[in-house]
Amino acid sequence: MGREDIIHMFPERMRERWGKTAEHAGSLQEIRLRVGRPETVMIDGRERFVGTDGELRDRPSGKTVCTAEDVDEILGHLCRYSLYAFADEIRQGFLTVQGGHRVGLAGQVILEDDGTVRNIKYVRYLNIRIAHEVKGISDPFLHGLYDGGGRLYNTLLISPPGCGKTTMLRDLIRNVSDGSACGAGMNVGVVDERSEIAGSYLGVAQNDVGARTDVLDGCPKREGMMMLVRSMTPQVLAVDELGGEEDLRALRTASGCGCRLLATVHGESLQENGYNNNMRDIIMSGLFDRYMVLTRKNGRCEVEGIYDRNGRSV
Fold first, then answer.
1. CB-count exposure of residue 177 (10 Å: 0-12, 13-18, 19+)
2. Are 235 and 202 a contacting pair, CB within 8 Å?
C-alpha cells in the first residue's frame, strides 16, 4: 500500500486535495464520506477531519465539504464509470476495488416485492476501508496448529470484532497453501462471502492467499463450501465469521469428506463466560482441535493463546 494507491482511488480533479491523506497510506484505515458532513479519515485508530485544503485536523472546520456530486463522482470512478457492472455488489452494500480495498455503501434502498434488496439508490455514504496485508503475522504460531507429522489441525480463531481475526486467517491461509517448516503446501478452498479475505477484484485475489488457493468470491458460506468440495477438491477449507447451524452442517459435511478446516468466529474468550450462543454451538460441535484466541489488551490486539479441544494451552 503506497501513496499512489490511495490517490488513484479518487477522480483526477480530487487527487491533489487527498494528497495529505495519501501520505499516511501505511497507517490509513478508513476514509468516510457523508453528504452534508465533514470528511473523516482513521489513521492508526485516530479520527482526523479533512479540510477543504486537504490538511488533516483534529476538529472539523465548520464547513461542509462533502457533496452529493462528490460521492457520485467518486463512486463512478471506483466502478470504472459502469455502475451496472457492479450492480450485484452495490445491492449487497459494498464493493471491492483494485488492491482489495472494500467500500461500504449506504443510501436509499429500493426493495423487490418480496422484501429483498433490488438496489441502493442515491448512495450518499461511503466508507473506504483500506486493506493492509500483514505477511508473517501467523508465523510464530504455526507450530501449535500442526501435529508432529505435518498434519494441520482443524482450527478456529476466536476474536472480538476489530481485533485482526481476518488478517490472521488470511496469513494462515497463505502459510498453509505455500507450505512451511510445519507442513507441506496444500490446496486451500476459500469461501470469501464478503470479499474480505482475498479481496478479489474482477475475480482475481488482490491479497496474497498462497499459490495453491482457490477463492469463491461473494458466495454465501453454506453454498460456497459445498460448491468447493464438489468442484475443487480442497484439502483445506477456510471461511470467515461462522454463523448458525447451516454453516455448521456444511462444515461437518466438508470434514466428513476429508477437508481440514480453518474458520473464525466472534467471541471474547475460550472460557464459558465468554461464549455467545453461536460460539457455544460451534465449540460443542467437536469439529475443531485447536482454538486460537485473539484479545485486546491496553488498546492493542494480540494472540492470547492456542488451546486444544479440552481447553489446555499448547
1. buried
2. no
Domains contained in the chain, CATH given: 3-129 (3.30.450.90), 139-308 (3.40.50.300)
Other C-beta atoms closer than 10 Å to the C-beta of 203 total 9
Of 170, 169, 151, which Cα lies nearest the Cα of 159?
169
CB atoms within 10 A of CB 140: 9
Pairing of strands 39-43, 46-50: antiparallel
Q: Is 228 helix (H, G, I), strand (E, B) or coil?
A: helix
Got the DSSP string for 163-197?
SSHHHHHHHHHHHHHH-BTTB----EEEEETTS-S
- List, for residues 53-81, the tens digit of each pLDDT value: 999 999 997 776 899 999 999 999 999 88
Query: Each residue of 184-199: pLDDT tens digit?
Result: 999 999 999 988 899 8
Percentage of residues of the chain with pLDDT beyond 70: 98
Q: Which residue has the cell 478479489?
A: 200
